[in-house]
């Protein structure tokens, strides 16, 4: 399943707008889920996962 980066950017912008306007309703949550699904299938998934893992380790070491 191949999605272009432009579709990923479009869904990302839509999700950010919904969150900023505090209007994340059921239909918006579905769009957010689709964005997450498409993001996990992209080449950006590995760097994002690495960043989140490092962030979790940093928070864990600071909290201990």
What does this protein structure show overall?
Helix 1 (5-20) packs antiparallel against helix 2 (26-40). The protein is extended and about 40 Å long. It is 78% helix and 0% strand. With 64 residues, the chain is an all-alpha fold. The mean pLDDT is 78. The protein has three helices and no strands.
Short description:
It contains three helices and no strands.
> How many DSSP helices?
3
Main β-sheet: number of strands, strand sense, barrel status? none
Helix content: over 70%
Mean pLDDT: 78
Overall morphology: extended
Number of strands: 0
Cα end-to-end separation: 42 Å
Outline the low-pLDDT stretches.
none
The H/E string reads: HHH
Strand-pairing-aware structural class: mainly alpha
**Beta fraction:** under 5%
Instruction: Give me the Rg, rounded.
Output: 14 Å
List the helices and strands and how they pair.
Elements: H1 5-20, H2 26-40, H3 45-63
Features of the shown structure:
single chain; 64 residues; mainly alpha; 3 helices
